[in-house]
């Protein structure tokens, strides 16, 4: 997928186009106007007197509005243009609006033919990069003042309605304006495109659900300003950090998504534009990362995922009681059960991580009502670990899809089919117990025990969870430690054999606290060894192993969020200097992307490229990467809530100089964290 | 009681699904189209219990479908959420009760416990 398309968006409504504003979607270039997981426009092409337009410049200020300044013709023919066009677009009130202005710079009056070609294929978002023949029927209808494109399959119906503020000649393939402009005059029309998910009575299904009206572009711009104003203020001598922090806040604002189920709440979506939807793992981890700056995201995530918590056994959706969902979608393939995202539950980490987030949220905010209210959900999640996660009954959380056709094979964050492998490249047999899942389960039990003791009035349950956690920690160290290699096995396979790939997963174990103190130094040595540490961060998979590839998504690339969790884990175990090295490397890399951290960069050694090579991925911003700088800051400043206080113990590398994070919100109200920037001795 | 829809609601009132959270409070009105006109069922949920009546009282969410399709959901053969996406049922009001329907209707028949699949040999990875 191309990643240089320009876009405007509001949650799961977005427009992706070329730099001249045109849309001509193909499988290789899946642009368009999307809403409700459906493409409502696959063509949107402007011509002035039969000529395509060339961009002089594109103004992309935020995610709300976009302006294109265009001239007719190809740049090679370029002589002083006597006309130009401005396209200004936004998502406003839930619709795509484009203001089109034609300017006559000539000294003579000119007659212009403005033509807009329009089409829709109503492709479900899950299939835009594949060839697909729609099973239903497409139709087009010219109406008084507008053009209606439609798609119907049984009772399922989607329509695109295009209207214009100025009169146009409308045919089934587009709109034509004939405009006569005096010298130095201009003409403007506003086009409005609505995506409709219709019921049999011709009304939009969403109009019948209780929710606040969709916000206008102006309201959203105002909201962004208020959001930035509310967030803690960062100042730092190293501008790379402040730029990255600011950019992450802007991107996190754009990632906020209000689900139909909780229309007044905002939770982080996993990525824009392709993952603007409810997800489990990504929403939980992003909310965790963002706790020091925007704890309200965690609240919405916990509420939303609680409502959708699994309740039954369902093979198609890989659902089990108590399980936290993986992904939710509204498109046609989901409607007709060609795909399982209604919702799909195929991830083994989201459920223990849900309990981790619930506990951490309370530590930061003191919102005890919520942990009392969510006792049932948390207990169901904790029960899931033992009853359904422990597939072989040997005390380890494992995964194995029951939906073998459209389900996900690897159900941790490294979810590509070959991500979990031996050092020599062999792929282990299912069901796999990856190491980080055991860490999450351990942490969930420990935190569950605290919640049971302090808020649920159930010390017996707390005692049981603590004992189970202690037993898991002991068992884990015995079964996963590779004594001859000096690191933890990446996983146990279905026969209980160790999978010896050396990978970043081990770093999450420090975050979870399952590693005995006596082993920590050895684990840290491995993480910081050049085989794993590239100079820009810890690679997903260590160099020198059979499947290592610097461009391997989960087999060599460096992921900022992975590094943020690892840095926080290092800090927990007292390795402040190593945490600082990782934070410095990632912030250094961010500076090459104007502060917007990509999902991943290539795993080349830093000395080789001197530049962090961006991994070609579709989503930008991606929520996990957007949240990473907040957790890295937490690791640098050593922020840990304790009772009613925020403990702080800054250990910041000299490169950063002075760091001040002012007005950090939490149960303490607002508090300032200041690191003097004076060099501190190591550990 | 021979009518399967009456039997479904009677079972719901007698024996609320364990899957219902104690905290869930809300009302749903079902309007079912059939040969004899529109049949109305009103379901009220509180404290993990379900009360059922035939009144047309206001509700947080109103679900409309036909008797035949409702019967499929009552047997666990069709899932309410995808049915809403396909317009096999329509919903008005609060969407969270459309999601909640999953907890009122039976699970799909024949689903397996992960442990019953777990140890069989299978695809690597």
From TrEMBL, chain A:
Pfam families: GDE_N_bis (PF14742), MGH1-like_GH (PF22422). Coiled coil: none annotated. It comes from the Bacteria. SUPFAM superfamilies: Six-hairpin glycosidases. Residues 10-192 form the Putative glycogen debranching enzyme N-terminal domain. InterPro entries: 6-hairpin_glycosidase_sf (IPR008928), 6hp_glycosidase-like_sf (IPR012341), GDE_N_bis (IPR032856), MGH1-like_GH (IPR054491). Residues 430-599 form the Mannosylglycerate hydrolase MGH1-like glycoside hydrolase domain. This is Amylo-alpha-1,6-glucosidase.
